[in-house]
Amino acid sequence: MGKSYSTDLRERVLQAIGEGMSKTRAHRTFHISRSTINHWFSLRERTGRLDPPPSRRSYGRQLEGGEFEEFVRRHAQATLGEMSLAWQQEKGVSLSVMSFSRALDRLGWSRKKRVGAPKSVTKPSERPGSSRLKR
After folding, report:
1. Cα dihedral across residues 100, 105, 109, 111: positive or negative
2. Half-sphere exposure of residue 13, counting CA atoms within 13 Å on the CB side?
3. How far, in Å, CA of 14 to CA of 89, rounded?
């Protein structure tokens, strides 16, 4: 997600329109979409302000550093869902399964579990009784 336009730019665009510039001309001059300009007008009408909304806080970066690695070692056999639940119980913060998946990927940990025997090293064309002709 990109950064919000500054309050200064928002005010300059709406001031230019207020001084007679058309919305289309403002859109071309300031390189801002018409829908964004319309949104700013409705925002000013509703709230009386043009401030951009506060940025959303990302909790995903909490899953870095030694504390997280220690947590992962303690819960090495847990599924991602179980890790998420354990994190919520220990830290009081709810994080998605995907947040844990991305954090484990950054650490180089794989969550894939191998079930059963490893793949056979015999190639399909070399099976005994194979009807394929070798070239």
Report:
1. positive
2. 26
3. 48
